[in-house]
Amino acid sequence: MVVASVLNKKFFSSVEYSCALAVCVGLILFAAADWKLTPTFHPFGLVLVFLSICADAVLPNGQERVFKLGASRLEVTFYTNFFTLICMTLTTYLSGDLVGILVHAARDHQLALYMSVYTFIAYIAISCHMTVVKKFGGVAAVVLATARKGMTLILSFILFPKAFSWYYIFGAILVLGGLLIASLFKIHIKKDHVRKLQDHEGRIDPEEGDMLMENISDDNRQKEIS
Hints:
The protein has helices spanning about 1-5, 15-35, 45-70, 75-95, 95-105, 110-135, 140-160, 165-200, 205-215, 220-225. By secondary structure, the protein is mostly helical. The two termini are about 15 Å apart.
């Protein structure tokens, strides 16, 4: 949200900041529980996780900025993946992983099939992500990605049971609660805005109000919140 305020000149309410903080604290509790039960973290890995979080904050908001400048979804998708391909090819080649996986895939055709299927699914996921960024903004995309990570953690506990810790319970409550309150808050703002439009115009039905809300810019919506 801070990055969105700087790059895209957006404003957010205290409720939205509180929900975002709750989600972040919940994810930190998940990591703290893993640290407590299986303290095998490497400092370099923690640095990489921190850099990944920073990139997750900057990239969607940067993509939203490019969309506002007139770029199409295909253009943003192509150039994002093109530069990612260059960076990953370089780093994996230097580490030796690129040559190793290519040799292994040449020997194991099933692995090559899995890699092809994963690439296809990843393209669909990236296209959906770009659509969310273009229609709803970078912050919504980050929240959605965070929700996906939280659901992945919960699903991992269901499929692969781990040692119990109350940190997991409190973390799940904060993550799911923060996402739920944020969604309910946005629904309330939308209904309140439509009701004000109905009172002002006197002739807007609910369906027309929903269509009109889709055409209202994020900046005007945030000004109404504040």
